[in-house]
Amino acid sequence: MGTTDKPILQVQDLSVEFQTVEGTVHAINELTYSLNEGETLGIVGESGSGKSVSSLGIMKLIPNPPGRIVGGSIFYNGQDLVTCSEREMEKIRGNEISMIFQEPMTSLNPIKTCGKQIAESLILHRGMKKKEAMQEAVKMMKAVGIANPEARVHEYPHQMSGGMRQRIMIAMALACQPKILICDEPTTALDVTIQAQILDLLREMNKEMGTAVVMITHDLGVVSELCERVIVMYTGRIVEEAPSEQLFENPLHPYTKGLMSAVPRITKERVPLSTIEGVVPNPTEKITGCSFWPRCPYATEKCRQELPPMTELENDRKVRCWNTVQ
Prior knowledge:
Layout: E1 7-20, E2 23-36, E3 40-44, H1 51-59, E4 67-76, E5 79-80, H2 86-92, E6 97-100, H3 104-107, H4 114-126, H5 130-143, H6 149-152, H7 162-174, E7 180-184, H8 192-209, E8 212-217, H9 220-226, E9 229-234, E10 237-243, H10 244-249, H11 254-261, H12 301-305, E11 311-312, E12 318-319, H13 322-325
Parallel strand pairs: 3-8, 3-9, 6-7, 7-8
Antiparallel strand pairs: 1-2, 1-4, 4-5, 9-10, 10-12, 11-12
Helix pairs in contact: 4-5, 4-7, 5-7, 7-8
């Protein structure tokens, strides 16, 4: 199975707000991107850039109150998820679009065995009987590399290591063979060896099952390892989009350049890491022009006054910057 040019998911002008004591937080601002069948897409950015909120928006899991989708649409196979009822979303969520969260211990039910938790979605979405669903749960545990699954299917989450719990989460997410798998920082809490195993597993599942993967992370190493295409977000907006190889070879937006230069290099010469000066703006603060200008070494008066549009360049590249396109 490989990537096709047929979009399975199209996010158009999605905007999400949260009402807080300090004021309105504009978490996502007119987010637009598409995901093709079987594709692996990376979404990167600092904490607070809107990566996780965008994924919760797709799943319609934004807590309301205080949050709500205030504009835009999310088309999945031609159906707008924004206008779907909760009952319609329950048929899609976990069945056609699945999600893996950062910390499996808070996502798994501590009083149910791991096998039962995998079997639940098969009973709900596939109409399997309990015994058949448990047999399928054993198969899924074996598929994600859990040794002795016939015994471990009866174990509880606390009896498993962090890496094993994350594998259980992947088994749950893939049990119904979804068309889209959203991974929200799935390897952050794991050590590098386990992280590499989980990435290998996701790559394998993507190839074998043709599942499109959206990898949300702040780790550029994870993105270069797994993703074909990358979206870079800053303060709820996409600032750059490009095929993975091109983005790493030649980042165009000053923010992307800053992220790349902050990554340690394994070279003979020891050079100090560069940093992006300043901090991410307060989410309740309304910045005129480009939201990155207070931290940008190339900022001009035009950057302070006008928000740059998303400009399409050659080789499927897009960038939101006045200096790049002049």
